[in-house]
């Protein structure tokens, strides 16, 4: 039984067993009882994951052809594949579960936002991304790729860049280098007025990242608050904790009219 590769779904399947084993080894560094694989595709990781002892495993796969192929090739997967987009999926388990995957590059940032929605249930993520996205997630203040994704993820997770994966490790080879990163949920989240206010502030600041914070976020604060010297900085100069602290100084009600994310 064969399957086809669909560019429309951003399918680049990992074929190098060395990297498959590295990802599984990284996954096993911390204990977990429930595991969700996002986009199993041709089963490169799946064949290792279903062999992990004592683990309740589920996979989320949108492509009907791949679901059929996986269930045919690995019969133990029957009843354990959620046939829909990860972006539309409800939490696959009750309680805590770890997330792993060679994430489709065309929705990889959206997958991270999904993880943030599930953060109370997801203590750890091991994921493969386009290297540019992976670097953005782990970047620190002062770095030109430090942005919305960096701040929002790092507010809730400690992040670590694990290793590069070259194009030739995939079929078909992507035109870019890939990178595997680890997210481990923070024990203490920076104090903020609300997650919604934090999200609105970070988006506003980075959507006009060349401007000072005073000009980029003027609509969110009263004039006297904007006199604080921190507003003379640009968004990329602020720590995650700085953004969190500023939420307490935002106007009582702010309207989230920022519909695009420009990084």
TrEMBL record:
Instruction: Please tell me where S-adenosyl-L-methionine binds in this chain.
Output: 12, 14, 39, 61, 102
Record key words, sorted: Cytoplasm, Methyltransferase, RNA-binding, rRNA processing, S-adenosyl-L-methionine, Transferase
The protein's predominant localisation is cytoplasm
Record-linked Gene3D superfamilies: Ribosomal RNA adenine dimethylase-like, domain 2, Vaccinia Virus protein VP39
Q: Which InterPro entries match?
A: KsgA/Erm, rRNA_Ade_diMease-like_C, rRNA_Ade_Mease_Trfase_CS, rRNA_Ade_methylase_Trfase_N, rRNA_adenine_dimethylase, SAM-dependent_MTases_sf
One cellular component (GO) term of this entry: cytosol
Task: Tell me any Pfam family this protein matches.
Answer: RrnaAD
The answer to whether keyword Ribosomal protein applies is no
Molecular function (GO) terms for this protein are: 16S rRNA (adenine(1518)-N(6)/adenine(1519)-N(6))-dimethyltransferase activity; RNA binding
- Its top-level enzyme class, in one word, is transferase
Q: Which residues form the Ribosomal RNA adenine methylase transferase N-terminal domain?
A: 19-187
PROSITE patterns hit by this protein: RRNA_A_DIMETH (PS01131), SAM_RNA_A_N6_MT (PS51689)
| Top-level taxon | Bacteria
Q: Does the keyword S-adenosyl-L-methionine apply?
A: yes
Q: State which Enzyme Commission number(s) the record gives.
A: 2.1.1.182
Q: Which SUPFAM superfamilies match?
A: S-adenosyl-L-methionine-dependent methyltransferases
The UniProt catalytic activity note for this protein reads:
adenosine(1518)/adenosine(1519) in 16S rRNA + 4 S-adenosyl-L-methionine = N(6)-dimethyladenosine(1518)/N(6)-dimethyladenosine(1519) in 16S rRNA + 4 S-adenosyl-L-homocysteine + 4 H(+)
- Compartments reported by the entry: Cytoplasm
Family per UniProt?
Belongs to the class I-like SAM-binding methyltransferase superfamily. rRNA adenine N(6)-methyltransferase family. RsmA subfamily.
Q: What does this protein do?
A: Specifically dimethylates two adjacent adenosines (A1518 and A1519) in the loop of a conserved hairpin near the 3'-end of 16S rRNA in the 30S particle. May play a critical role in biogenesis of 30S subunits.
Listed NCBIfam families: ksgA
The protein's name is Ribosomal RNA small subunit methyltransferase A
Its source organism is Filimonas effusa
